[in-house]
Structures are given as structure tokens and as C-alpha cells.
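Can anyone check this?
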Amino acid sequence: MSADSTPPGGDHPATPPDRPAYGFPARGWALLAAHPPPGVRGVPRRWRSPLRGPWLTAVLGLVLLVGLPVVFLTGLLDHLAYGPRFGQAFPRDVGWLRLPPVDWPTRPSWLFRVTQGLHVTLGIVLVPVVLGKLWSVVPKLFGWPPARSVAQVLERLSLLLLVGGILFELATGLLNIQYAYLFGFDFYTAHYFGGWVFVAALVVHVALRWGRTRAAVRSRPLRGELTVPRAATHPEPPDPDGLVAPAPGPATVSRRDALALVGGLSLLLGALTVGQSLDGPWRRTALLLPRGRQPGTGPTGFPVNRTAVAAGITAADTGPDWRLTLRAGERRVTLDRAALLAMTPHTARLPIACVEGWSTLQTWTGVRLRDLAALVGADRPRSAHVRSLQRGGLFAQATLQANQVRDPDALLALAVNGVELTPDHGYPARIIVPALPGVHCTKWVAEIDFRTDD
């Protein structure tokens, strides 16, 4: 964004303002300040960009203060969508961080499509802002002494958790949507607890820094700063936090250019991502997330997360001998595909959305789940446990809430867009429920157990 190397001449150091006095124990902090590690004292003077300062840091921080809580809250909503009270949200055991036991709604039908798409897309869009904010404060990493009081130690610890938390969440999230599990630990557990650590650190950091952030933003109008060209870009007045370079060099870009660079990169990442949450020609633009792109043409040419081969589904499993078993207590009914096709059909246009952020809107035809429940004598089931032909895996079975079973558009789908399901799309039958996470829209259904108790 600007020159950080020492120019050959013309060095005019800025005079730093008075630093706060040492807190208790003052003698200890002074002794620490007097004995820095070799080379540390001269490092901050090598960061010479005149763009760095409280204003730029505060502006980028405010963008993150708006965006990152949205990413966190949509992540919590997605966790609720998986039905934690049935033990099928991951991680299962979260202790006192357990969310309230609420039924995930089925309306609007696009609810999960929006929350998960926003969670993934906004997280990716904010990556350049996070990097820009870290660039703006990097000289503080080399300040000596690292703290001047016990209170500042606590602030630095919160900052460490804040920076570490957001980098950890972004890195693991980006790897997860690419199925690149390089970290050797359970993604769901780490991502869930990591999000809470980040939010706790964010609350502490905002409480400690809000006054200075607000003052920095008000120190110069945004509209006026966006009109300043590179030639007129000068350092901000020296600040107590040491963000302003003590010996600034000439600007190579203006603050307007720096914000345009960060904003442009964010828009580019958004443009290369958002197509996975849209249908039609936009899906071809999802270059960063190829699993969300259109894999083919025709009525069944939309994405799948897990193919029949990957799930171990064979032609013998789904052939003429396939049967669907319906249960309700001691009652049991067995149906073949011909019997299902003979039942009253229902067609609904519903989205299906997956945890990687991709989603698609398709027209599904099948038998209402509530009609299947009535067939086995469960007129008002409290839940329905669905089992797949898939052998093993986290999502070989799923439990549906009462409102999901009773929704008039909740289907055991037999066809999509007017044609028979393909093996990859769940032939001979799959679950489709409004606003339900895609992994719980179980494919290759073998059994549905309608339960009338909790």
C-alpha cells in the first residue's frame, strides 16, 4: 500500500506524543523497557508507510465490527438448523454453550439457503478487510515494552485471542468448503468453540477501544479523505498507540487508493463466490468454489455433495428389491417404489442448500411426509427418524422435527424437474423439506420411523 523500506534520505521523524506512565509495578515495566531484545528497538522505524494511523485502522475496524458478528450469528443459526436437541448438530457436546432448544422453522423455505450462503460468502468477502486491518497495526507487534501496565497486558491478551481467533476461523472455514482437512482435528468442534473465543475477545476489545476508535473515525471526514490524491497524502499526527510511523516515507498510494484496493478485492472475491448461491448463468462465476458450480445440463444437472459411488450405493441396493419401511411404534408398513408412485403426488419448488454455501432451487415431486405418517397410523408425529441405504458416515441418518414432518411441502421426493431421480440425487427416494440443511435431506432412504413421543 505504500513504501515500508527506508529511503536513502529525507528522513523527518515524527515526534511521538507523550506515552502513558507505567502502571503498577512501575519499576518492573521500566526495567523491562530498558532491556529490549537485540534489534527490537529499531524495528518500528522500518515501518515507514504514511498511511498507517488511527483513522485507517478505525475505518477498517468498523467494517469488521459490522460484518464479523453477522458471520458469527449466521453460523449459530446454521447450528440450530441441524437440530442440536436431537444430538445431530456438530459438535454434539458443547457444555454451557448449548443453544436454546427451538424448532428450526420451515418458512420461509429459503431461510437456510440465505443464512448459510451469507455465512460463507460474507466470511470470504471480509478476508481482504481482515488482512488490511492486520497490515495497519503490524508495527504494534514490535513495540517495546509489549505492555506498560497490567490492564494493557489484559488488552494485549484479548487482542491476541481476537487476531488468532479470526485467522483460525477463516483458515479452517476456507479449508472446509474445499474439503481440504489438513488440520488433523475435528472441524466442527474447533470451528464452533473458536467462534465463541473470537466473539468473547471481540467484546472485550471493543469495550476497551471503542472510545479511541470513535475519536479516530471523527478525526477526519470519510468523504474528504476519499478526495485526497496521493501527492497530498500525509501521515496522521503521532498517536499514543504507535500506529503512526515515527519516520514516515513518501506515500506510494493514497488512503483512498488503499481503501479502494481492499474494497475491490472484497468485491472480486464476492463475485467469484456468490454464484454458488444463485441459479442460472451466475453459477458459472463461482470459480473459487467449484463444488457449487453446475456439474451438467438437463433437469438433473445441478450440484450434489456426495455421489452414490462415494456413499457406497450399488445398483443392487436401489434395484427392484428396494423397499421403504415405515414405522410408528409397533406398526410397520413396507412399500416398493410402484406403491409410492401410486400415492397422491405433490409437487413443490424448493431450494436445497449445503454447508459449503452452495444452494439451488429445483422442482420436486413425491409423497408428502405427513401422508406417509398417516399411512402408518402416526397422525401427529413429534419427530421422524430417517435412515439411508448409505453405510456409515455422519449423515447416513437424520431426525426431523414435528413441524418439518407436517409441512405441506415436506416430501419423500421421487422425481425432480419432471424426471426420475438419478442415483447421485438419491434414487429411489430422498427427503426434501423446506429450509432444511442439505445433509439432512437424506438420500437413498430405506426407513422412516415416525415417533409420537419426545
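Reply from J.R.: I decoded it. Residues 26-271 form one domain.
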